Fold this protein.
Amino acid sequence: KDLAAPEPPPFCKWQTSGMLGPARASSGNEFLSKVRALRLKLFWVGLTAIETTLKCFSEESKEGLKSMKIQSIATLLAIAVAIAGCAQSTVQQLSQSSFKVSTTAAPACGPQGARNVAFRTAAVEVIRKGGDLFIIEGDSANYDGWSGIHSQGMVVRMIKRGSSGASDALSARQVLGADWQNVVAEGVPDTCT
């Protein structure tokens, strides 16, 4: 069989002097020349296989790749939205003066972030219901190690001013800060920052 090395294209000229060793037309060592030629042929066979594989993509395969790209972009957008809105809270009325806040938060929030969102949600709800003073009567936290989701539950009792429990109660307005009106207008917090 002919083991003579084919002439590489100009962009691959380095192959004859780099990876394959110095190019010698007649080095006197025929075995070495054949080994170098075989290496070069194997290199070209590899390039040809890659080129053939790339050319063999049918239109359906190209459409499949486009579909995968679109799905990847959609997934990244969904993740970005999930990170931006990393917490979700629900409020369940328990009695005329009490309710439960249930918050789930993304792993990035951590347990403290979930607790803060639940606490701020409680303060917003107290003001929405026409009150200001409240006490946390029950508290529960849960961590799902598989998904990384943090859950926080709080049972909140609203306190009337002048009642016996008012001296120990927290002020929802103070919890939310000087800008409490805007915080209440924005609604239940959905980020743990």
